[in-house]
Amino acid sequence: MIAQEWLTKIRALPQNSPCKIMNVCGGHERTLSLGGVRTVLPAGIELIPGPGCPVCVCPEEDIYAAIQLALREKVVVATFGDMLRVPINAGKQTVRSLEQARAKGAKVHPISSPLEVVALTQQQPQQKIVFFAAGFETTMAPLAAMLAQGIPQNLSILLSGRLTWPAVAKLLAMENDPVLLPARKETVNPSHSRIFDALVAPGHVATVMGTGEWEFVVKQHHLPVAVAGFTVEGLLAAFYSVLRQRAEGRCFLDNCYPQVVKPAGNLTAQKCLKETMNVVDAQWRGIGCIPRSGFELKDRQIDARYQFPDYTSEGRERRGEMPAGCECAQVILGRIYPKECRLYGTACTPRHPIGPCMVSDEGACRIWWSAGLK
């Protein structure tokens, strides 16, 4: 079905109240923003970008550790390209990013996949290499497969992997606790205070982990959920599903990406993850600790945290937080839109990013800026 047909079906649905639909995928947000989908949906439907950027939530202290390893140890730090420009909380005279460390002479190597790291170790067999691996399940699965096969002796991993669904659970827990829930600038109806009324779940994560991870949103919180692909048509199909569920007064988990996503997910990928990593409580930058939301390496022999000195400094001010004035955490939590941040488009731009959401291609602020949403 083409996009116009899905729009016709959406417009035909009865809308008795405003509806906030949250997505938790940078890829979804890119399709929505660059495709202008918000401008063609009926009034009262609000699309909210949520915690869909692993670079944005990567703990500031992990980035600091990677910078220190690059500057102080005789290693090459390999990492995904987006991580190079993410700033830490430090004075202007301090090296604040891996990009700046590279400019100071540190060996920092941008890569786009774990396979490139293996190739790098083969090209430099005498060189110690640290792979600073930040990402969600879709990044952790190929890394786990690489670890399960065995990695070269000159390679170690600085892991900063996160699971997607616990962040949504955190949002829903915050909704039930007024002390934890910050104010949101409403754009549809000021009296409508729920964070979101329906969820569009990421198709690539469900491809790995299966659809079952999102059942809790339906069963515990009685909200409609649809797993979506990454085309405009695929997202409109998911919007139609959750809006129809609301109109009919029933909630269920709908797989709108069946050509790729299966209920059980990729069992081989899940097996590799279980063999090589543990699930642990983990820090999310600007948000805090989320229970059982992170991955930890089982083998300490390849864990850079145990293979190199700990450069953590308790004396660092605002350690783990967003930069001063930056409201990326509020954007990630779906409490404000990117353009509602006071720094957006003024002090903070893709050329001169202040917060991580303006750095990464998965970050809502960077996506909105690229789409001309100012």
List the helices and strands and how they pair.
Layout: H1 3-12, E1 19-23, H2 26-34, E2 45-49, H3 54-57, H4 60-72, E3 75-80, H5 98-103, E4 107-111, H6 114-123, E5 128-135, H7 137-149, E6 155-161, H8 165-175, E7 198-202, H9 203-209, H10 215-221, E8 225-228, H11 232-248, E9 253-255, H12 267-276, E10 277-284, E11 288-297, H13 304-307, H14 328-332, H15 364-370
Parallel strand pairs: 1-2, 1-7, 3-4, 3-5, 5-6, 7-8, 8-9
Antiparallel strand pairs: 10-11
Helix pairs in contact: 1-11, 2-15, 7-12
Kindly describe this structure:
Residues about 180-190 have low confidence and may be disordered. A hairpin with a 3-residue loop joins strand 10 (about 275-285) and strand 11 (about 290-295). By secondary structure, the protein is α/β, with parallel strands linked by helices. The two termini are about 30 Å apart. It has 15 helices and 11 strands. The protein has 2 domains: about 20-50 and about 165-255, Rossmann fold, CATH 3.40.50.11750; about 55-160 and about 265-335 and about 340-355, Rossmann fold.
Descriptive key words:
18% strand; alpha/beta; 11 strands; Rossmann fold; 36% helix; four-stranded parallel beta sheet; 15 helices; five-stranded parallel beta sheet; 374 residues
Give the CATH architecture of the largest domain: 3-Layer(aba) Sandwich
Order of adjacent strands in the largest pleated sheet = 2-1-7-8-9
Basic shape = globular
The biggest beta sheet reads: 5 strands, parallel
Q: Tally the structural domains.
A: 2
What is the averaged pLDDT score? 93
Q: What Rg, in angstroms, do the CA atoms define?
A: 21 Å
Look at the structure and give the CATH class of the largest domain.
Alpha Beta
User: How many distinct helices?
Assistant: 15
Number-wise, the strands total 11
- How do the SSEs run, as a string of H and E? HEHEHHEHEHEHEHEHHEHEHEEHHH
Percent range of helical residues: 25-40%
- Strand proportion, as a percent range, falls in 15-25%
CATH topology of the largest domain: Rossmann fold
Q: State the CATH superfamily name of the largest domain.
A: HypD, alpha/beta domain 2
